C-alpha cells in the first residue's frame, strides 16, 4: 500500500479515536481502514494503537509516529501548493486556535471574512485558555497572547494587551476607588483563575513588582464569569484589556489602578514554518494580521 495513504489513515484513526469515524472522515469502508492500520503496524513491526470495545488509543510508539506523520503529510501538502504556484487558490481544511474570548470577539469575524472570500476552504477553530502545541494538536495557525518561547514557530506581532483592574461605576460609587494596590484588601474581589493564578495579583511600582494577596469573594475559572459579576456591580475583577475594551469605552466598566499596571503583553499570530507556505495558511495569516493590527483596542 502507498505509504502516504497509510499515514493518512493512521492519523485519521488516531485523531478520531475510532476506526468507524476515521472511515467516515476519509470516505472509506471500515474494513479498508482496519486493513490499512494493520498493514502499517506489520510493516513497522510495532503496535501503534490499542483497541477497546469503546475507544482507540495511541501507544507510546503511536504518539511519536503520529507527530512525525502529521509533519510529513503537512510538508507534502506544502510541496503540492508550492508546485501549483504561489498564487494558487486557497483550498482545503484550516485548523486554528485562540483564547476563548479573543476567539469570540476577534477571530470569528476573520474566519467568516476568510471563508466568504475563499469558497473552497473549511475551518475548524479550537478556542481554549491554555497554550496549545500546534504540531501535537494538528493545528495550522494560532493567536497567542504573551511571550512566545517556541522558536520553531513563525510569529507576527499584531498588537498588545495588559491586565487591568475594573469595576462597575455603581460599585465604585458605593465603595470608592482604590488608590493603591494595598487598598484592594478592603474591596470585594472577583478573581478569574484563567487570568491570574491563585489569589495574588502582581502590580508594578516604578521598576519594582508588588504582589498583593487577596481573599476573593468569587473565584471563577472563566473570564466570562468574572466579567459578568463585575458588570453586575458585585466587585472588582482583573481581566485583559481587550476583554473589557467595549465596556470601558461605553462606561459600563471603569479601570482603576492603571498607574500600577504590569507591562503589556504581545499578541502574535503564529504558524508552523515550512519550506513552502501553503496558500490557505498564507491567506488566513495575511487577513488576520491586517484585521487585528487595524483594531485600536489591541494597540
Automatic annotation (TrEMBL):
Cell inner membrane among keywords: no
Keyword annotations: DNA-binding, Transcription, Transcription regulation
Molecular-function GO term, any one: sequence-specific DNA binding
Ranges for domain HTH lysR-type: 1-59
Top-level taxon of origin: Bacteria
GO biological process, one term: DNA-templated transcription
Gene3D superfamilies: 3.40.190.290, Winged helix-like DNA-binding domain superfamily/Winged helix DNA-binding domain
Family per record: Belongs to the LysR transcriptional regulatory family.
Protein name per Swiss-Prot or TrEMBL: LysR family transcriptional regulator
Organism: Candidatus Accumulibacter meliphilus
